[in-house]
């Protein structure tokens, strides 16, 4: 059995022990953070597998899509919802590390 496998199993056991004693809101945060980490890995994998020209073409398609009046309407609605949540005190500040990644609190 490799050292990585042993360490991985130990982390898994530790994480399960922690999760079992967390209140539900913190458990939900833990799951959200785990999903965020999964998303980072997927994003890195996708970025590494794409050619720069593919990335540029994809960015151009997104730019064109987001420039449409319909997209602007949706973005304005989303921004309004986000501001309402913030004003209602349902948001939390975010902190980032030197690499631009979110630092968990």
Write the layout of secondary structure elements.
Layout: H1 3-21, H2 24-49, H3 52-66, H4 69-87, E1 95-96, E2 102-103
Antiparallel strand pairs: 1-2
Short description:
The protein has helices at 3-21, 24-49, 52-66, 69-87, and strands spanning 95-96, 102-103. It has 105 residues and is mainly alpha-helical. It folds into two domains: 1-49; 52-89.
Detailed description of the structure:
It is flat, with a radius of gyration of 19 Å. The protein folds into 2 domains: 1-49; 52-89. A hairpin with a 5-residue loop joins β1 and β2. It is mainly alpha-helical and 105 residues long. It has a two-stranded antiparallel ribbon with strand order 1-2. The protein contains 4 helices and 2 strands; from the N terminus they run ααααββ.
* Strands side by side in the biggest sheet: 1-2
Query: How many separate domains?
Result: 2
Number of helices: 4
Beta strands, count: 2
Question: Which characteristics define this entry?
Answer:
single chain, 105 residues, mainly alpha, 2 domains, two-stranded antiparallel sheet, 4 helices, 2 strands, 75% helix, 4% strand, flat
